[in-house]
């Protein structure tokens, strides 16, 4: 069994195994003609169920064959141009190369004595990001497992910096289009059930700052404490960006922590054309970025950045077995002092290799391409009488719904759209997402693949219309 340990004597086994895996995936990528096979849970579950984990195959090729059957064949492939559903990007090769390296070396970024150079590479990327945001010379941050964790950590810091220790008095303001991790964080942080105040959005799905001002005023009048405002730079549903500068003004006025959730919109930090859409982000106290959404990085790659490095002390605990206090005096850089995690992947390496191979402009150009595609797609939808489209995109998301000719009952339209989404998924020909707008069912394209063309968008719209018409035809038959 020792032959399976990765070490100096097993280099050949390592090379052969990984190469075999890479070959399979490369062949798979070349052969996928749709994002999904359409397999059902009922069809797949027994194939996985019947594998006896206590009876190993002892043979890599056989295991890879089996993996084809239980995973690779029916996986959802984000690189396919007709995968248009959630905030998943196709990944760039330099990042995948880095992933293979970081897994094999297996550094853990908690302490210097487990990661040496990795610690400095991560710190340099944090500095690179805070400079792009414009957070100033005292800024810092740390890589996290994702936007959810970044938001949680940012709100933890905000809670600790708040002007009261009475948790029940704290309020967090976020738009009604903000990510659910804000509410989840509030719960984990022990805030009261009604701590997150939902601020209405305008017709472009941006936080209404007049309403925010009213809510902040009311909060103070009620003797409560505004702990943080969460501005979203790229809402998950619409890609809309809250008015960051106006929100920063209000945060200044009320002495409130400003957190910008740029999990999605962070791609603009590298954009050659649209960086100005993030103006105001430089005034944040903390920022969430998800490189695994708009920097074409594999999951996970995310960071939380802060204006004032000292605020990260709220996540600092010392342990004799890991990061004793004296190490701070000795100036040993232990990233665990800033993180909610202890053992932590060297995810930063993926962004490092990406920037060193492609450059930030290369990444920004890819993100610009999908933003431009969304703008084109919006025109197509707006001109198509079969569709109602919600907001002109700021990033790369399109929210729309099929309006079948001659159908006026909104419930029936809801059903037709729901049916179309499901039927499309089952066909595997394309994958789209769905959401609700003003209580009605809509469909959503999240465009993150520069290989997707306007022709793909047109073709998928035809498929959706076809499925919806089929549903309505059948429902007419049922009625008669
Ligand atoms: C995706 C997303 C998150 C959550 O990020 P994860 O990486 O999925 O944990 C938070 N906020 C926004 C706006 C998002 O789009």
Report what the structure shows.
The protein has 480 residues and is of the alpha/beta class. It has a domain at 98-356: Aspartate Aminotransferase, domain 2, CATH 3.40.640. The chain contains 15 helices and 12 strands. The strands form 2 sheets. Strands 2-8-7-6-5-3-4 form a 7-stranded mixed sheet, sandwiched between helices. Helix 1 packs parallel to helix 3 (60-72), helix 4 (93-105) runs antiparallel to helix 13 (348-382) and helix 6 runs parallel beside helix 13. It is globular and about 80 Å long. The protein starts with 10 loop residues before the first helix and ends with a helix. Bound molecules: pyridoxal-5'-phosphate. Pyridoxal-5'-phosphate binds next to helix 7. Keywords: Decarboxylase, Lyase, Pyridoxal phosphate.
């Amino acid at each position: 069994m020792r032959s399976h340990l990765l070490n100096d004597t097993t280099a050949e086994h390592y090379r052969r195994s990984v190469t075999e895996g890479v070959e399979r995936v490369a062949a798979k990528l070349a052969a996928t003609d749709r994002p999904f096979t359409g397999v059902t849970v009922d069809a797949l579950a027994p194939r996985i169920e019947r594998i006896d984990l206590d009876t190993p195959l002892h043979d890599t090729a056989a295991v890879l064959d089996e993996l084809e059957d239980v995973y690779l064949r029916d996986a959802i492939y984000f690189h396919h141009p007709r995968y248009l559903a959630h905030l998943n990007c196709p990944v760039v090769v330099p990042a995948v190369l880095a992933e293979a390296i970081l897994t094999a070396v297996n550094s853990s970024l908690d302490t210097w004595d487990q990661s040496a150079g990795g610690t400095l590479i991560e710190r340099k990327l944090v500095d690179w990001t805070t400079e792009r945001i414009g957070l100033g010379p005292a800024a810092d941050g740390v890589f996290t497992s994702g936007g959810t964790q970044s938001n949680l950590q940012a709100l933890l810091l905000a809670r600790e910096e708040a002007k009261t220790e009475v948790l029940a008095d704290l309020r967090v303001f976020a738009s009604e289009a903000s990510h659910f991790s804000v509410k989840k964080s509030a719960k984990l942080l022990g805030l009261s059930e009604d701590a997150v105040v939902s601020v209405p959005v305008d017709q472009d799905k941006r936080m209404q700052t007049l309403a925010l001002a009213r809510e902040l005023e009311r909060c103070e009048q009620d003797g409560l404490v505004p702990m943080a405002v969460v501005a979203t730079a790229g809402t998950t549903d619409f890609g809309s960006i809250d008015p960051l500068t106006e929100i920063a003004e209000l945060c200044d006025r009320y002495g409130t922590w400003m957190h910008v959730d740029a999990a999605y919109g962070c791609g603009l930090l590298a954009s050659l054309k649209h960086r100005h859409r993030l103006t105001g982000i430089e005034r944040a106290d903390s920022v969430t970025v998800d490189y695994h959404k708009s920097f074409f990085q594999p999951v996970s790659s995310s960071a939380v950045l802060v204006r004032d490095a000292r605020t990260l002390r709220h996540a600092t605990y010392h342990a004799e077995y890991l990061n004793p206090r004296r190490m701070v005096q000795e100036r040993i850089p232990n990233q665990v002092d800033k993180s909610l995690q202890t053992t932590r992947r060297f995810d930063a390496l993926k962004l490092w290799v990406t920037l060193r191979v492609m450059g930030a402009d290369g990444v920004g150009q890819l993100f610009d391409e999908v933003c431009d595609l969304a703008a084109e797609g919006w025109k197509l939808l707006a001109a198509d009488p079969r569709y109602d489209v919600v907001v002109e995109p700021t990033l790369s998301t399109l929210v729309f719904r099929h309006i079948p000719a001659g159908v006026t009952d909104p419930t029936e339209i809801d059903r037709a759209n729901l049916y179309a989404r499901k039927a499309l998924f089952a066909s595997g020909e394309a994958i789209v997402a769905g959401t609700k707008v003003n209580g009605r069912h809509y469909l959503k394209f999240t465009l993150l693949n520069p290989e997707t063309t306007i022709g793909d968008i047109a073709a998928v719209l035809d498929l959706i219309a076809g499925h919806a018409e089929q549903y309505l035809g059948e429902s007419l038959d049922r009625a008669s």
